[in-house]
Design brief:
With 400 residues, the protein is an alpha/beta fold. It folds into two domains: 116 residues; 255 residues, P-loop containing nucleotide triphosphate hydrolases (Rossmann fold). It has a five-stranded parallel beta sheet with strand order 2-3-1-4-5, sandwiched between helices. α2 packs antiparallel against α3, α6 crosses α14 and α9 runs antiparallel to α13.
């Protein structure tokens, strides 16, 4: 009887052991799958952290105050990366993997916060974007997607209220110095660039911060019959800003050495003469009290394609699309060469060129605004004292 009971117990024990082994295998498989998924997330997070740390290390070269924090971020990222690589050769428990991911995420948040809080350098942006007069120009070597002087958009947006107040104050002082005094100072902002580079957008965002009373805007299209009856600078001279004004040219006299050259509208010998004529004209403006700020809005062909497609796909922007833009796009190398020559031949000490990376619209607007502020600061306009007896006039107002 006892032998019979023993025989019944053995199959039961074997069955229980099998179930336990099967459950253990399933649990182990689940743990491995979970670990694999967590590792993948950790790897991705570490890559982001590495990129953040690399940027932080680069930033440390320019900002000594941030050097220690950037180095700590970099070391932390390396330690995390090392931990993940080490985990590839060992079982990683779910809780350990979770802690690792949380650690990486915290590092990313800390690094991003450090960038957002980093101050914009005091270095004049003009020094970073200005082409050296007389030096060779290689547009292909200049990054259209770069953001010289700033790390990210958050930095710029944090500065915009102060920049808007600053340009408004300087413009008022410029206008007052001419209206209430004898100042002849003024600013001419020239915007040039390929189609869709953002000349009109810059006018809306930057000039929108200015007082219309002291602003003169002119967009130059193909010359009219009347304009063709005069020399190419005739229509330009008629639209230069007066004393106390900020003038903005959406395209300019440079169309007559760019489009005219590429489209062969003028003989090459006449194009060659126009460079010198432009230099003399701009020098005369500077001698008469103007500061000339010439901005080449530099975009890539890929960015231009995206912006042209956006105009076609958006009914609200479709009116901006012009089939001739594609015609000019087909001549991209020719236009780049024409711009190269114009930037080299007409970049002078009196009126230098600034190359503004324009793939990022937010940076383009910020850069042009900063250049405009720096031009006004170079003038440093002052409110006029007035040609009357202040005490006497105060008394008269009180008695009136």
């Amino acid at each position: 009887m006892a032998q019979k009971q023993d025989k019944q117990k053995k199959p039961a024990k074997a069955e229980d052991a099998g179930k336990a082994e099967k459950a253990a295998r399933a649990e182990k498989l689940r743990t491995k799958e979970l670990t694999k998924a967590v590792r993948a997330k950790a790897d991705k997070a570490v890559e982001v952290t590495k990129a953040t740390a690399k940027s932080a290390a680069k930033k440390a070269k320019d900002f000594e105050a941030e050097a220690r924090r950037a180095q700590e971020d970099y070391k932390a990222a390396k330690a995390t990366a090392k931990a993940v690589l080490k985990a590839e050769d060992a079982e990683l428990a779910p809780e350990e993997a979770k802690q690792l991911v949380e650690q990486v995420a915290a590092q990313i948040v800390a690094a991003e916060a450090a960038f957002a809080d980093a101050p914009i350098p005091d270095t004049a942006l003009g020094e970073l974007l200005r082409l050296k007069p007389g030096a060779p120009v290689d547009l292909a070597a200049l990054e259209s997607g770069a953001t010289p002087g700033v790390e990210n958009r958050a930095q710029v947006e944090a500065q915009l209220p102060a920049l808007a107040a600053r340009v408004a104050e300087l413009q008022e002082r410029l206008y007052a110095a001419a209206a209430g005094g004898d100042s002849k100072r003024r600013v001419l902002l020239v915007l040039q660039g390929m189609d869709t580079s953002g000349k009109g957008g810059t006018v809306r965002h930057v000039v929108g911060l200015l007082d219309p009373n002291g602003t003169r805007i002119r967009a130059f299209k193909a010359p009219t019959v009347e304009e063709q009856a005069h020399d190419f600078l005739w229509r330009i001279r008629n639209n230069v800003p007066e004393a106390g004004q900020i003038g903005i040219f959406d395209r300019s006299h440079y169309e007559d050495v760019l489009v005219a050259k590429v489209r062969k509208l003028v003989l090459p010998m006449h194009i060659g003469r126009r460079y010198n004529t432009i230099n003399r004209f701009e020098k005369s403006l500077v001698d008469d009290g103007a500061v000339v700020v010439k901005c080449f809005l530099h975009i890539s062909p890929d960015e231009q394609r995206e912006r042209l497609l956006a105009r076609l796909e958006n009914p609200a922007k479709r009116w901006k699309y012009n089939p001739t833009d594609v015609d000019d796009r087909m001549l991209w190398p020719d236009f780049q060469e024409a711009y190269r020559i114009a930037l080299e031949r007409c970049g002078t000490e009196a009126a230098p060129w600034y190359v503004v990376p324009a793939d990022h619209k937010w940076y383009r607007n910020y850069a042009v605004l900063r250049l405009l502020i720096e031009a006004l600061e170079s003038i440093d306009p002052q409110y006029p004292a007035g040609d009357f007896d202040l005490a006497a006039e105060r008394e008269r107002v009180l008695e009136s």
